[in-house]
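pasting for the record
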Amino acid sequence: MARNEKFASLVARHEELTALMSSGDLAPDDYKNMSKEFAELAPVVEKIKQLDSASRELDDLAELSSNPEMKELAEAEMQELRARIPEIQQALQIMLLPKDSADDKNAILEVRAGTGGDEASLFAAELFRMYQRYAEGRGWKFEIMGISDNELGGYKEASALVSGRGVFARLKFESGVHRVQRVPATESSGRVHTSAAPVAVLPEAEEVDVQINDKDLRIDIFRASGPGGQSVNTTDSAVRITHLPTGIVVSQQDEKSQHKNRAKAVTILRARIYDHERAQLDAARAADRRGQIGTGDRSERIRTYNFPQGRVTDHRINLTLYKIDKVVDGEALDEIIDPLIADDQAARLAHIR
């Protein structure tokens, strides 16, 4: 079985990188870039070698099957290989799918209380803690950037910078409206209420990704206030930045230092501008492809958490898990994210075939 030309070029590049990196002649930056490329290529090349090995073995068994004494054994092994080779090919196709350029980036997570009053704010706080526990479970860093809470302990809005390997690649599927159905603690009649909390996951943008000109910004300084209007501090340290070209507004007041609030606000602003630009590009590219994963529109209801029935349903792939406590604890969130990733891969494979 002839080797695919693309596979051959990938193996050749892997061998070239191996030689260059072991030469000791590379500048530190070149070595760093090549190390990253090498790490990305290594599992692909390993899979190509598995495919080559299986293909050669199939050819050998085909010859062996012409021997009457070996025919039965050879044909049994051939049947097994014929089933395994398409699985290896499928895995290779998925590995070689075009990557989202932001997949390797950290993410800024934003959770807001939507419709539902106090219950929505309590649900937003619960979602935020779910992602915090999930991040900790995966060994990611979860840095809280800002929380606006109320007297009940609910969150009107909260944001965090999540850092680690593959953060955006996994968390990006959480963008959308999350809905909760349960009896609120404040409900005396025992009626089930429905509330919602929008979640936004933005790739952290670096300066190289987004250039922000000072002339495009309007910066307002004001006094921070806490829950119920109580003062957080007595200085004008809160910052509101408006990006005039896009109309994006970011406020930050958690820090007592105006400088720190401004730095956090710029980080979030840069991420929102980057996300805005990506969304415009994606809309153009995806005009002819919607797929089961949905449009990615954050106004889209993506998941329902039904506490009376103990279930979580992701509406994009019609997946229901009856383990709501483990999902909300962050422990079983991968059981939703993994199928979402697989579904996205299948949709993209179908699109390029």
